[in-house]
Amino acid sequence: MAFRVEIERRFPAVQGLPSPVRAARGRSLIPAGDSIPVVLVVAVDFGEEQLTERGWFFDTDATGEIVDRCCAELSAAPWTALFDFRPTFELVARHLFRRLADRIPQLAYVELRDETFGVTTRYSPAAGPGR
Fold first, then answer.
1. pLDDT digit string, tens, across residues 44-68
2. pLDDT above 60 for 71
3. What is d(CA 44, CA 31) in angstroms, rounded to the nearest whole number?
4. DSSP letters of the chain?
5. pTM of the predicted protein model
6. Of 105, 125, 121, the residue nearest 57 (C-alpha)
7. Of 101, 60, 106, 82, which is closest to residue 11 (Cα–Cα)?
């Protein structure tokens, strides 16, 4: 890999899951129905040999539109209503990667950053324990 291009968008999300760990520790909870700021990052890796005569590999504007539509969908309703699985950040990141991989060539990873609690979750199919 010679290049990595990241496209990121911020959007409001309602995850819709309770936090039993936070509740057990007496820590503040996010009120039901309240949104939190989330950042979606998609990254594309490519080699220098893939650069076109124009000096780029893919159209970031077109990819940005794909990411914009994805964020609009993720902010349209609570995640518990959008997904037929328990919408943890890990499972949603994996789901998004699988969904976007066919539309974004050489997708390297999908990342979700919960800005309220300062937690980043990245899914990359090449990553594994200890890597």
1. 999 999 988 888 888 899 999 999 9
2. yes
3. 35
4. --EEEEEEEEEEE------HHHHHTT---PPTT--EEEEEEEEEEE-GGG--TTS-SS-HHHHHHHHHHHHHHHTSS-HHHH-SS---HHHHHHHHHHHHTTTSTTEEEEEEEETTTTEEEEE-TT--TT-
5. 0.84
6. 105
7. 82
